Amino acid sequence: MIRVIKPRDDGLSEILANRALDLEQVDEQVKEIIKTVRTGGDDGLCAVTARLDGVEIVPGDLLVSQAEIKEAYQAVNKEFLSALRQAAENIKNFHRRQLRNSWFEPRPEGVTLGQLITPLHRVGIYVPGGKASYPSSVLMNALPATVAGVKEIVMVTPPGKDGSVNPYTLVAASEAGIAEIYRVGGAQAIAALAYGTETIPGVEKITGPGNIYVTAAKRQVFGTVDIDMLAGPSEVLIIADGAARPDFVAADMLAQAEHDEMASAILVTNDTKLAEMVKNELAQQIVKISRREIAEKSIIERGAIIITEAMENCIQIANAYAPEHLELQVLEPYRWLGGIRNAGAVFIGAFSPEPVGDYFAGPNHVLPTGGTAKFFSPLNVDTFMKKTSLIDYSMQALCTDGRQIMALAATEGLDAHAKAVGIRLEQRETGQGQDGGSLK
């Protein structure tokens, strides 16, 4: 049921090529949706939602009411609420460690350089919805923004066919301190966040995963607003040796495969016997899960077991693949950790399965996919911060450095740049300041 790629087989290149998300196939449709919302405001937003999602909403009902949020608390169980609150605390504690301060560096010659680090003012988070409930996505997107100091956090999420929002999602939003929640999803929600409507004021940045239409919309509005990343199908790559338990490995692969048919679960091992046992475990375990049909399609079409000759080869494959989630189920994980260059998150040892990070441990589960872990980082506090450079030169410092600055400007043919410095040096030489006073 799952591909087994043996040493010297050319299967990795096919796996790498098969993970690309083809946004072009929906670009024109998404472009039209964005145009409708941008020009039509609330009416355009509701019209698109009715046409594409089959949900009739009037502008006055876009905003989720406080009464609905109170009702949501009555619909969730105490065990969920307790777990959610502990997960929220773990996430906040982890992200507080990421906070950085503004800094200033005075220099003896009369120069002060520095950097202001300030939070964004208003951000929007997209949370998948409809029939599904993703309270963990609410926490992972909202809490780093809260820790960063963002004043206004707005959430959009697709409603069910009856126009209601999942109560677990609403409770998670309330616990995360989100004051604005709008019942709208898809590319039209991204357009509303980017350009604003009569009901939904625009934001400065959009974060959160969605389907191919949401991802394409985020790409199209980038530049008008900032975005976190272009999220593709979820994926896990597990490096395991002969010491790994095959039932653990198979369970973790299926935990990934049940996300959706496009998800990828890959085992890379230097142990042929383990590979065979994991293959057998997959066959036994997959018949017992509720999302069997989805998991089977994922495992057959996008899963793989890659057998290598040595652990060093496993590390090389992992770095080439740059997985969203990387599990090190090996005897000495910290021995090999230093060789990992590209991964969204690394799960170390037999008792750190991916769901620990997805829900509870504290590190963010919004991770780079599709090989973008080679250059992207997980969602973090810096995602919601901006940096402003500070330059303060004294007269003496400009006189010291001015000729060198002018030489560089002249090399680039920018004589007005050179003049902006030179005019100040001339005044220094003539001894006249802006007010006619002495510069000497």
Describe this structure as you would to a colleague.
The protein has 440 residues and is of the alpha/beta class. It folds into three domains: 24-229 and 382-386, Nitrogenase molybdenum iron protein domain (Rossmann fold); 232-375, 3-Layer(aba) Sandwich (Rossmann fold); 395-440. The chain is built from 16 helices and 14 strands. A six-stranded parallel beta sheet has the order 1-11-10-9-12-13, with helices on both faces. Helix 5 (135-148) links the parallel strand 4 and strand 5 (152-157). Helix 7 (186-195) packs parallel to helix 8 (212-221), helix 9 crosses helix 10 and helix 9 (246-257) crosses helix 11. The longest helix is centred in the N-terminal third of the chain and has 30 residues, at 24-53. It starts with a strand and ends in a 10-residue tail after the last helix. Residues 435-440 have low confidence and may be disordered. Pathway: Amino-acid biosynthesis; L-histidine biosynthesis; L-histidine from 5-phospho-alpha-D-ribose 1-diphosphate: step 9/9.
